[in-house]
Fold this sequence. Notes:
The protein is of the alpha/beta class. The chain has a single domain, classed as 3-Layer(aba) Sandwich (Rossmann fold). The chain is built from 8 helices and 9 strands. The longest helix has 15 residues, at 26-40.
Amino acid sequence: MAQTAQLDAWTGNxxxxxxxxxxxxxxxxxxxxxAWADMMRPIEASTPKSxxxxxxxxxxxxxxxxxxxxxxxxxxxxxxxxREVVLADKILDSEHLRAASALKLPFDDSSMEMCFTxxxxxxxxxxxxxxxxxxxxxxxxxxxxxxxxxSRDPQESTxxxxxxxxxxxxxxxxxxxxxxxxxxxxxxxxxxxxxxxDVTWWLFEKKLTAH
Length: 211
């Protein structure tokens, strides 16, 4: 796995400390399931049969998706401690969970109906963002979804006292400006009512497959 300064942090002690702050509680999973039901409602007549999460951490999204959809779920996660949690809790097996990052996805072209990130693109350096998005676009056969912090203009913010680990922008426009995608829907998850971080989400369909 090619390392960057960001991956060095997330695969090391900094990433392990983040995992300690996460909990796959029933409330967290239920809140995430509600968010997913909202995001997927525009395509409920054609929900994907295979879904890849790029950066699953301890698998809260995976746990929520299992409750909602009869899809084959896959994930990549660079942090070994997080992968151990997902495997130990039997959320995914080793065939469906890979030790990899967004910068090089270990899957064939168009092998997943949907690829998504949730709070992951914000932690990728702007210098590497195109590579990460290109990999997701390559692997997806139809849908791309991302849920990330929003800023109208690209900006870097200090994250838990660290520099170079949090980058906000209009990710929806980034996808549309650089890839052949059709927007399907977008929305906002407000922490006060969802129990999830304040994030903006976008759902796209590759134009080559759009109907």
